[in-house]
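Here is one chain, start to finish.
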Amino acid sequence: MALNHTLLGLLSFKPMTGYQLKQLFESSINHFWNAHMSQIYRELSSMEEKGWVTSIIEPQEGKPDKKIYSVTQEGTEVFKRWLQEFPETMEEAGRSDFLARIFFASHIDPADLAYELRRFIRKRQDQLNSYRETEARIKEQRKKGDPDAVFWYMTLRRGVKTTEASIEWAQECLDLVEEIKRNKE
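Its structure:
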């Protein structure tokens, strides 16, 4: 998934600044896509050069001027073409330093591994709580009749389900590590 297509999609809702786009990332699609401010601004500049977006400068008193981006007709066409071209591979191949360490965990103290698994569970639980907050906002949007909200809900539910599964998996691993610790005593 290319960042430029994601930005075009977000800008299809309304014109925004780079900062507003970053905020929208964090409050809506962070469960499957993330971008840093520098990446967003770099991509917006590139998209403007390609004619996919335009920008206007909005002066502000006592603050730096705002640069507000809007999708052009060409950008809309690029975005719609991208939407129609689903990838052959439905999942991105990933790497996990965390899983690599677990794979080789026979070389570390089980207490250290148990600590890391608990830390993993806490982080995933925090993530799940954040998703629940987002889910409540999306449900409100659905009640208001927002036609996009049902699709936002679909992607968020995937994040919720995979996070719940990750917590369950980590708890199973923690139980196994606790069993290993008991057997060593």
